Amino acid sequence: MAVFFALLKVKAGKEKDFERLQRELSKLTHDNEPDTIVYDVIRHREKKGVYAVYARFKDEAAFEYHQKTPFHDRLVPPIFECLDGGADGMILDFYDHVG
User: Fold this and answer.
1) Percent of the chain at pLDDT exceeding 90
2) DSSP letters along the chain, please?
3) Which of 9, 56, 91, 94 could form a disulfide with 38 if both were Cys (CB 3.0 to 4.6 A apart)?
4) What is the rounded distance in angstroms from the CA atom of residue 85 to the CA atom of residue 10?
5) d(CA 33, CA 66)
6) How is the chain split into domains, by residue range?
7) How much is the pLDDT for 63?
8) What pLDDT is recorded for position 45?
9) Which residues of the chain have pLDDT under 50?
């Protein structure tokens, strides 16, 4: 399985836009990608503007497919616009699922 965990810092005042875009991406991902096992977006309870995305895919091919979907291409640029620092406002790490 392929897993990523992304830590994101959203610009002040852009939280609602970010959440709306991520909800749409999450729904479309779950509805259209059977090999995406988990795609969750979470908000830090105490640190305003801090979010994380946890995604788990059946394999690397499923992850690559996810990145090439039309809705991913449409939604990710405006998501990055919400981040403090754009795409650089995200820390993305890849993991192997162990259990």
Assistant:
1) 92
2) -EEEEEEEEBPTT-HHHHHHHHHHHHHHHHHH-TTEEEEEEEE-SSSTTEEEEEEEESSHHHHHHHHHSHHHHHHHHHHHHHBTTGGGGEEEEEEE---
3) 56
4) 9
5) 7
6) 2-96
7) 96
8) 98
9) none
- Architecture label for domain 2-96: 2-Layer Sandwich (3.30)
Contact 86, 78 (CB under 8 A): no
Region for 85 from its dihedrals, namely left if φ exceeds 0, alpha if ψ lies in -120 to 50, beta otherwise: left
Question: What pLDDT shows up at residue 88?
Answer: 87
Distance from C-alpha of 66 to C-alpha of 28, rounded to nearest angstrom: 10
The arrangement of strands across the sheet holding 36-43 comes to: 36-43, 50-57, 2-9, 90-96
